[in-house]
Prior knowledge:
Strands 1-2 form a two-stranded antiparallel sheet. The radius of gyration is 68 Å and the shape is rod-shaped. The protein is mostly helical and 201 residues long. The longest helix has 98 residues, at 64-161. Strand 1 and strand 2 (172-175) form a beta hairpin. It contains three helices and two strands; from the N terminus they run ααββα. 81% of the residues lie in helices and 4% in strands. The termini are far apart.
Amino acid sequence: xxxxxxxxxxxxxxxxxxxxxxxxxxxxxxxxxxxxxxxxxxxxxxxxxxxxxxxxxxxxxxxxxxxxxxxxxxxxxxxxxxxxxxxxxxxxxxxxxxxxxxxxxxxxxxxxxxxxxxxxxxxxxxxxxxxxxxxxxxxxxxxxxxxxxxxxxxxxxxxxxxxxxxxxxxxxxxxxxxxxxxxxxxxxxxxxxxxxxxxxx
Length: 201
């Protein structure tokens, strides 16, 4: 009996019956079972081949089959190793850059702090200068007030007491008469003139 099913439709003047359909199904089932067994046998042979290649590789033996089986994994391992090395270097560089950036940030913060301290010192000096100027102006006001008060006191003393001022002129002292003394002497001179005129008459 053939393993391939018979296509009864190609046979002329033949009608398909149930028995022929059953034979075709049985033939298909046998063909599928045979194919499955062949695939399982191939898989078992491949597993034994890989196991043998692995054992030969561990023992240090070279085989063409081992190269075919392991050539792709070795390349992948080397690529992964190279990628890992590159990533490690990149991480180290990033760490160095971050440390440098942090150092620059610390220097910048220190410089900003010093600048702030300088500005504070400058403001303190400006405030001290303003305070000193205000104190100097206040001192001038006090001195001017004292001078005005002294002038007013001298004027009041001269007007109220009518005391003569004595000053030196060419080494000699001369008294300055007050207005009251001048008036008194004028009256005395007038009286003397009247007396002299009376005697003459």
